[in-house]
Amino acid sequence: MNDPKHFDYFADHPSLRGEAKIPMNADELFRSVEQWAVARGLDDPKNKSKQALKVMEEVGETMAAMARGNKAALKDGIGDSMVTLIILAMQCGLSARDCLASAYDEIKDRKGKTVNGVFIKE
């Protein structure tokens, strides 16, 4: 992210950049992201439209990294996308953990087949 116009609001948190000294489990990471967001006032529901745009920006950066074959940028983009989704869930009065659990519950028994790299459900 060498573009001076690009503001990366995750840069100051080592655990969100893969530099954490102490490994965290998924629940601790979710909680840390939520606390980080609250400490910066990012949990305000009035900003959910802006946060949704931030999600799209990070997903776009993830796709660009994939297209370029840049694994470090891909890791960064996926992590940043996850952080933005956790914050968006908070702003919408949801728990990202519950959203993920609900999605898994919906797909866990799904049957179908993979065609050209895409899962087609029955």
Characterise this structure.
The longest helix is centred in the middle third of the chain and has 21 residues, at 48-68. Helix 1 crosses helix 3 (71-91) and helix 2 runs antiparallel to helix 3 (71-91). A two-stranded antiparallel ribbon has the order 1-2. It has one domain (17-121): Helix Hairpins, CATH 1.10.287. The radius of gyration is 16 Å and the shape is globular. The model is unreliable at 1-7 (pLDDT under 50). The protein has four helices and two strands, in the order H-H-H-H-E-E. By secondary structure, the protein is mostly helical. The protein is 56% helix and 7% strand. Strand 1 (112-115) and strand 2 (118-121) form a beta hairpin.
- Taken from the alpha-carbon principal axes, the silhouette is globular
Beta content comes to 5-15%
Mean pLDDT across the residues is 87
CATH level 1 name? Mainly Alpha
Per CATH, the architecture is Orthogonal Bundle
Give helix and strand order, one letter per element, not per position.
HHHHEE
Cα end-to-end separation: 42 Å
CATH superfamily: MazG-like
Describe, in short, the structure shown.
The protein is mainly alpha-helical and 122 residues long. It has helices at 26-39, 48-68, 71-91, 96-107, and strands at residues 112-115, 118-121.
